[in-house]
Amino acid sequence: MRHRKAGLKLNRTSSHRNAMFRNMVTSLFKYNRIRTTSAKAKELKRWADNLITLAKRGDLHARRQALSIVREKEVVHKLFKEAEDRFNGSSGGYTRVIRLGARPGDAAPMSVVELVSSEMGKKKKERKKKQAKKEPSTHGREPDRTGAEKIDEESG
Question: How far is CA 110 from the centre of its chain?
Fold first, then answer.
């Protein structure tokens, strides 16, 4: 039984797996979006959400824990600086996995992992109703124009 054994093995040794996900999570925070296989994307989401939770905490111990995982100092500084503003309104769901389809070479299912920002959710709620303009019905014909309109179009 695999009770309390969270995480995917992905047919790799533990050192290879940890190095791969450390590199992937560094790239995700550096570029805000990466493309990978769906199995790796699901596991990467766990790593990224954990680091964003550390960044929201914001204390020195959390920063040192993040620096032990993320490879580049500048990426950690950027993450801790933006985390409060970007992810403050939510208590989870900081990343989004979008399925792309099969990879051409080996038909592996591919996905895009991207960071979700709180501004995107606010923009969706603001919606204006379009008011329909009443135009005279022409039933598939061009509307009749006066001679003055025809002259203006020919000269201009």
Answer: 15
